[in-house]
Design a protein that fits this description.
binds adenosine-5'-triphosphate; globular; five-stranded mixed beta sheet; single chain
Length: about 425
């Protein structure tokens, strides 16, 4: 957490005003890491798939959506309050019978809805209530017919969305693990009912692959199937992908078989027929498999897994594809104009080639290496006196610390190749 703050990944939310629990602001490097996670997800779950369509549904939907989906009634957690210090806890996450903060007596439990409420328009009355979406999925279900009418996809096909979701969480967050505001990467994959197990297995496998691609060590990733009593109201089978965080094994991502619950309910409640007609003129509600991934939980797992330390250095051994900065460029010495000029040219060229590039000319090269190691930059390029003679530079590898000399003319393709290999 200290590294994340110091180096510009994650800042506590509204810190100068004393902070707001479970909220965070993202600095330039955190933002880049999140962007790279989302890019990798989009590439794997949308672009590489045969028939997955993107959607940008709204954060504010008609409140009728959340009534129909069951969230107004069921998206609740059991809440208890300490009668002495008035701190609130989720009853299902408490082992103790008394308040963990002051030992006081706890109240009876009551259900607490996790959706944030707001009002549309100028009046704050019940008929103008709206909710901030607690998941991106519902916008997908209510646009199902739009996608079918525009693109006429054959089953199976998917609709995917990345976007903010909001939950009024009352338990302590464990850094960015549990937030009031977070981003989800969700896919609703529409299938014929008979095939649900096959597709469930396919997406489970895909999630395992995505964990590996994100650099998570397989020993720290596990799967846990939900008991019937634990499953959400819409699900017939749910498997959590769990990660072994420093604070315990916890849900990283979820995979749910949502059946035809959502399309059916929205058809009934809206009066608009959301069924599907196949090539043989059979009319039915497709069933749905949903992999749902949180960007911040992924980022936290990625950071925990990548953090490495020995007596000399702290290194974020991030997968190069996720690293916020791909390459740093240094002139050996800041007060040698020839070296600075040449290094600037290389820096510009790599930036123009669309890489995230850092520049550093402070202190000695050793210190600059350590500074880049700490933020996970895979490669550092140094322009030295030999560069001026033979147009080669040294490239130093973050993990092995080994250096090699590469022709300046080959730099762009060298980096491209290394990115593809990793
Ligand atoms: P939990 O049991 O930990 O509250 P959940 O089962 O309610 O999580 P889902 O409804 O399955 O979570 O949401 C899908 C994904 O969205 C989760 O696997 C997680 O990656 C992410 N997510 C859910 N809630 C939060 C949150 N408050 N902060 C950050 N990410 C979240």
């Amino acid at each position: 957490m200290a590294l994340c703050k110091r180096r510009g990944f994650v800042y506590p939310g509204s810190e100068i005003y004393g902070g707001v629990a479970n909220t965070w602001d993202y600095g330039p490097l955190g933002l880049a890491l999140k962007r790279n996670i989302k890019k990798l997800w989009w590439q794997e779950f949308v672009k590489k798939e045969e028939s997955v369509f993107g959607l940008g549904g709204g954060i504010i939907l008609s409140p009728k959506v959340w009534e129909a989906s069951g969230h107004v009634e069921n998206f609740t957690d059991p809440l208890v309050e300490c009668k002495k210090c008035h701190h609130r806890f989720r009853a299902d996450q408490l082992d103790a019978k008394s308040c963990p903060d002051c030992g006081g007596e706890l109240s009876e439990q009551r259900q607490f809805n996790g959706m944030f409420r707001t009002f549309i328009g100028a009046t704050e009355e019940s008929k103008s209530i709206a909710y901030l979406r607690p998941e991106t999925a519902q916008a997908i279900f209510i646009n199902f017919k739009n996608i079918v009418d525009s693109f006429h996809p054959k089953l199976p096909f998917g609709i995917a969305q990345i976007g903010k979701a909001f939950r009024n969480e009352i338990t302590a967050g464990n850094f960015i693990f549990r937030d009031l505001e977070f981003e989800q990467m969700e896919l609703e994959y529409f299938i014929a009912e008979a095939d649900w197990e096959k597709h469930f297995d396919y997406w489970l496998k895909k999630l395992r692959q995505f964990a590996t691609m994100s650099g998570l060590h397989p020993d720290r990733v596990s799967e846990r199937e939900h008991e019937a009593s634990e499953r959400s109201h819409y699900s017939k089978k749910t498997v959590d992908i769990e990660y072994d965080y420093p604070f315990g094994k916890k849900e990283l991502w979820g995979l749910a078989y949502r059946t035809d619950y959502d399309l059916k309910t929205h058809s009934q409640k809206s009066g608009v027929d959301l069924s599907y007609v196949d090539q043989d003129n059979n009319k039915f509600f497709p069933h749905v498999i949903e992999p749902s991934l949180g960007v911040e939980r992924t980022m936290l797992a990625v950071l925990c897994d990548a953090y490495w330390q020995d007596e000399k250095r702290v290194v974020l051994k991030l997968k190069p594809a996720l690293a916020p900065i791909k390459v740093a460029v240094f002139p050996l010495s800041a007060n040698k104009p020839d070296l600075v000029k040449k290094a600037q040219l290389i820096y510009r060229e790599l930036k123009n080639a669309d890489y995230d590039v850092a520049w550093d000319d402070r202190g000695n090269v050793g210190k600059r290496y350590y500074a880049q190691d700490e933020i996970g930059t895979p490669w550092c390029i140094t322009v030295d006196y030999q560069t001026l003679e033979d147009d080669t530079v040294t490239i130093r590898d973050r993990d092995t610390t080994r250096q090699e000399r590469v022709k300046v003319a080959n730099l762009v393709s060298w980096i491209k190749e290394k990115l593809l290999e990793s």
